[in-house]
Amino acid sequence: MRNYPVDSIHLSIEEVIPFNNDRHSGIIFKWSSDIGFGEYTIYKNKDGWFADSETMDSNNDKSFVKELMNLWIKDVCVI
């Protein structure tokens, strides 16, 4: 069970950094909130997509990354 509901911590994205190296490609979300700050890394390798959430999510509860995605999508300009 989550200590803080994601929709009540004033989560914001500070920076989105795409990356590509010899092992992985993906995106790093630098975030901040009332409970602190951190990085959420989503990356792909030959085996599929993975995430390093710094313990903000688990396979059974992905509400933190869902909120990050919703915030990011709000900033995307569709052309």
Brief summary:
The protein has 79 residues and is of the alpha+beta class. It is 16% helix and 42% strand. The chain has a 4-stranded antiparallel β-sheet with strand order 1-2-3-4, with helices on one face.
Describe the protein:
The protein has 79 residues and is α+β, with helices and mostly antiparallel strands. It has one domain (10-73). The protein is 16% helix and 42% strand. The chain has 1 helix and 4 strands. It has a 4-stranded antiparallel sheet with strand order 1-2-3-4, covered by helices on one side. The longest helix has 13 residues, at 63-75. The radius of gyration is 13 Å and the shape is globular. It starts with 11 loop residues before the first strand and ends with a helix. The mean pLDDT is 94.
Which structural class should the secondary elements be placed in?
A: alpha+beta
> What is the succession of H and E elements?
EEEEH
Main beta sheet strand tally, sense and closure: 4 strands, antiparallel
Mean pLDDT metric: 94
Q: Looking at the structure, what is the overall shape?
A: globular
Q: How helical, in percent, are the residues?
A: 10-25%
Strand content: 35-45%
Number of strands: 4
Q: For the largest sheet, list the strands in their spatial order.
A: 1-2-3-4
The Rg value, from CA coordinates, equals 13 Å
How many independent structural domains?
1
Flag low-confidence runs: none
Spatial gap, N to C terminus: 39 Å
Number of helices: 1
